[in-house]
Amino acid sequence: MLKPKYEGAITEVRGIRVGQAEDRRGRTGVTVVLCSREGAVLGADVRGAAPGTRETDLAQPGCAVETANAVVLAGGSAFGLAAATGVMDFLEQNDVGLETGVCRVPIVPAAVLFDLAVGEFRARPDAAMGMEACKRAAKHVDQGVYGAGTGATVGKLAPGGIPAPGGVGTASLTLACGVTVGAIAAVNACGDVYDPHTGRMLACGRLSDGTPIASESLLFGAMPAPELLKFPGPGQNTTLVVVATDATLTKAQAGRLATCAHDGLARTIRPAHTQMDGDTVFALATGRADAEVNFVQLCAAAAEATARAICNGVLMGGSA
Question: What CATH number has the domain spanning 10-317?
Fold first, then answer.
């Protein structure tokens, strides 16, 4: 049985659970990060040029709502945003959401990745799948080809190459002060994936005879210039991350945490943040830890947890 290289999970953060649902035939799915009833302070940072998102504007400092009740990561490209409706329905049924004086409105940011070319493109995450993922929410997180990682692949820069499996990965660190930082990633990158500590390539595309194709060799001179025109089209990839902590943060600090977590994405995926990816990081701060934390240390831990989660995702997805 495969075991993740890096320990921990985003659910080690107090106030966080994860639920996942998938369509094995269609090779797509949903990963939902559920907060406790009071929600978590929200931040977000979109770095890829081809994102499919909802409620990311709300995460910006200065916008009225401070907290989110859940974050949805889904396959299905833009169609997959429908899964957030099922999450909203689940939360409304449990009387969770922003009190408006009329009813409670659940705050559910979401982002999607492109997996339509992997399985049956008509099999897309929908509201029913989002609801099912919520019902399965727990502290244990299955890693690999589960949830939003079911149809995920990496190493797609080479024309005609066969991508390597991606997947969902998670990891966490607990600082000396008692604050925990965790991340979960759905890894579906155009680029290749490397271990940030050893520099070893973990996943890349291959030719039909099994020969590996490193994206970096293509980018730095090994490919004839006309072949550059055959790179994948925009929006056909995307790595999605949720980083969470039980520290108490302001909304501006949560946004900075999301920004710094992108460093972990860039350490492991080469190239990252391309025009063919919609790389997006959400941050959640539950405020459950009664401890002061050095914010620089916290941001560094967020980047490290993100890098570890991405590595676990491709390793548990079946890449060497």
Answer: 3.60.70.12
